[in-house]
């Protein structure tokens, strides 16, 4: 068994396709198929179920998957150790990010990282399925580190460090019946349509939990994955919504209310997989993040 066998196996497992795996590896598909067959022969077990439209893992493949990731991770760590003795660091770090939310100065951080370690490549991956999706990508080994906004304790299997918190306020159009009320209860809000993030996004999880705890049903009539754009839909009268002040540049046409009976506090953490060895490139990214953001910040708005 060679490291190349494991690399090809992970590519097929992650993409669910020999064709897509070959494309990602920049090799011909026949080479991927032959390598996987050789690996299966060596192990004495099929690792994949080859279907007409998709390739899925067998029970043996699912058992082999975390060990394959662990072995490749150990090989990367050994390579990193040699590079460090030579005063160099090279490789990749894949970072999951939140759309429209940058309270850590990520562009400037990456600029400094490039200056310190020019041979390190950073790949940013936006949260297409929100923080819940990023957390799962971390567990699946698709990300090395991620910024998450899920409320409450750390999700299972992840190590997290708090970076920032911010209270959420209710934004309504100036023409809304609640405009000017100052403070409202969750019970008062059940009759009004909401603009919010899709399921799995941090804001949505936080607010859904609050309404469930209060025993109040609400209707989200407009979902926007980019929470930074939600204020435009609220201003247009398409619903009311909870936002942190730092997300709102322009308050024209809006009124801001506080919730009297529930504290809604958004939080941002940086997370890594607790069950996977952290590589040198990821450590370099985390060290710089810690250097530039040594303590949690309270975000009060613009």
UniProtKB/TrEMBL annotation:
<keyword id="KW-0804">Transcription</keyword>
<dbReference type="Pfam" id="PF00126">
    <property type="entry name" value="HTH_1"/>
</dbReference>
<dbReference type="GO" id="GO:0003700">
    <property type="term" value="F:DNA-binding transcription factor activity"/>
</dbReference>
<dbReference type="InterPro" id="IPR036390">
    <property type="entry name" value="WH_DNA-bd_sf"/>
</dbReference>
<keyword id="KW-0805">Transcription regulation</keyword>
<keyword id="KW-0238">DNA-binding</keyword>
<dbReference type="InterPro" id="IPR000847">
    <property type="entry name" value="LysR_HTH_N"/>
</dbReference>
<dbReference type="Pfam" id="PF03466">
    <property type="entry name" value="LysR_substrate"/>
</dbReference>
<dbReference type="GO" id="GO:0005829">
    <property type="term" value="C:cytosol"/>
</dbReference>
<dbReference type="InterPro" id="IPR036388">
    <property type="entry name" value="WH-like_DNA-bd_sf"/>
</dbReference>
<comment type="similarity">
    <text>Belongs to the LysR transcriptional regulatory family.</text>
</comment>
<feature type="domain" description="HTH lysR-type">
    <location>
        <begin position="1"/>
        <end position="58"/>
    </location>
</feature>
<protein>
    <submittedName>
        <fullName>LysR family transcriptional regulator</fullName>
    </submittedName>
</protein>
<dbReference type="InterPro" id="IPR050950">
    <property type="entry name" value="HTH-type_LysR_regulators"/>
</dbReference>
<dbReference type="InterPro" id="IPR005119">
    <property type="entry name" value="LysR_subst-bd"/>
</dbReference>
<dbReference type="GO" id="GO:0003677">
    <property type="term" value="F:DNA binding"/>
</dbReference>
């Amino acid at each position: 068994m060679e490291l190349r066998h494991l690399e090809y196996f992970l590519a097929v497992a992650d993409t669910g396709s020999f064709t897509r795996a070959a494309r990602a590896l920049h090799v011909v598909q026949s080479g991927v198929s032959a390598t996987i067959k050789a690996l299966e022969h060596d192990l004495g077990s099929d690792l994949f179920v080859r279907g007409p439209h998709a390739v899925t893992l067998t029970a043996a493949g699912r058992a082999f998957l975390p060990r394959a990731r662990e072995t490749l991770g150990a090989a990367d760590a050994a390579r990193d150790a040699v590079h460090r003795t030579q005063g160099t660091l090279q490789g990749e770090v894949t970072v999951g990010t939140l759309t429209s939310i940058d309270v850590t100065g990520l562009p400037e951080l990456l600029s400094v990282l490039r200056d310190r370690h020019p041979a390190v490549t950073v790949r940013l991956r936006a949260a297409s399925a929100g923080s819940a999706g990023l957390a799962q990508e971390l567990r699946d080994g698709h990300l090395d580190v991620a910024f998450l906004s899920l409320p409450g304790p750390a999700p299972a299997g992840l190590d997290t460090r708090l970076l920032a918190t911010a209270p959420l306020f209710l934004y309504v159009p100036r023409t809304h019946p609640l405009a000017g009320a100052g403070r409202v209860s969750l019970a008062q809000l059940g009759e009004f349509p909401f603009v919010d993030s899709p399921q799995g996004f941090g804001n949505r999880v936080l607010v859904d939990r609050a309404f469930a705890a209060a025993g109040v049903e609400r209707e989200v009539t407009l979902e926007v994955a980019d929470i930074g754009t939600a204020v435009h839909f609220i201003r247009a009268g398409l619903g009311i919504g909870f936002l942190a002040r730092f997300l709102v540049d322009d308050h024209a046409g809006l009124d801001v209310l506080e919730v009297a009976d529930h504290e809604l506090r958004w939080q941002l953490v940086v997370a890594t997989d607790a069950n996977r060895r952290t590589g040198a490139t990821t450590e370099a990214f985390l060290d710089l993040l810690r250097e530039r953001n040594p303590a949690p910040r309270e975000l009060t708005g613009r």
